[in-house]
Amino acid sequence: MSPATVLVIGATGAIGSALVDTLLPDHQEGRLRLAATTRRPDAAARMRDHGVEVRHLDLDEAETAGLQAVRPAFAGVDRVFLLTGYDVRMLAQAKAAVDAAKAEGVGHVVHVGVSAAEDTTIVHFAWHQLVEAYIERSGLGHTHLRPASFMQNLRLSVGTPGVLTHFVGEARPNWVDVADIAGVAATVLRDPGPHDGRAYDLAAEAASLSEIAELLGDVLRRPWRYESAEPQVFYDAMVRAGADPVYMACVRNVFERTRNGSLIEPDGVFGTIEAVTGRPATSLREFLERNRELFSGHPGRTATRESPSERRS
Fold it and tell me: Using an 8 Å Cβ cutoff, are 47 and 8 in contact?
């Protein structure tokens, strides 16, 4: 029997690139066949150098040219890893991906959403939940990954050396290392059966920015401190930089409600990564120790809850 083909959509984003790296030994040793989508020629060249098939996929083409325009990317694929972008188009993009996957006989979809209460009223959290509902309605095998705030975003909170600037006051959000998200995704994509129909909230621990600044001081052996900023400052900066105002208003609302205590993190999520992968989740201290160079004094950028880059796909 030939190995299953896994298509990674969003292969050059933070999670997607970590997933490709994690699955590359499986690909090279013939346990699965790895394909990926990217619009970046440099990234495509690097993946081809490792023997990874690179496929063209622009999910926006489905609106202008019909589903047939995106179906070829899913041809011969058994399992799909799905990431979408940072505006309301994620709804149509995800629908097109699911419809194309179903039309081409894909067996399982692993979708990355967000860790949130089932009855959340945060708009872009609800978008992720609507995508999950559509995947479930499709009849495809599926696993939902719901990560908390990315540890990688902490680097973007460094504008001045020795200072973390963030927008959640003294609240204690849940945190997760992107590499652990990729590890869970890889585990599911290697053998979807035990994870079919499951939803996994992914977080390692909760911590305030003050606590993280103290950890940074211990790890780097120099003083660090936390400065709280107003969520509106985040919104204004991101919109000036060209981000979608509707999406960024949602993120601003997350910061505002996290700091005033009206947005509660899901309970009972800290053991999931180890339960799925068999390895303990990366702690904040471990993350900071492994990534000292990220906090070595070069200015960062304003962070969002969900992504350490402008886009995940």
Answer: no
Orientation angle between helical segments 123-138 and 89-103, nearest 10 degrees: 10
The ranges assigned to domains in the chain are 4-147+178-201
Burial bucket for residue 45 (CB in 10 Å: 0-12, 13-18, 19+): exposed
Q: What is the mean pLDDT of each run of 10 residues along the chain (313 residues)?
A: 94 93 96 92 87 94 97 98 90 97 98 96 96 98 98 92 95 97 98 98 98 97 96 96 93 97 93 98 98 74 40 28
Catalogue the E-assigned strands of the chain.
4-9, 32-37, 53-55, 79-82, 108-112, 141-147, 149-150, 163-166, 174-176, 198-202, 205-206, 225-228
Alpha-carbon distance of 120 to 275, in angstroms, equals 26
Task: Write the CATH number of the domain with boundaries 4-147+178-201.
Answer: 3.40.50.720
Are 7 and 72 contacting, i.e. CB atoms less than 8 angstroms apart?
Answer: no
Please report where in the chains the tokens 């652990």 appear, as a residue. 180
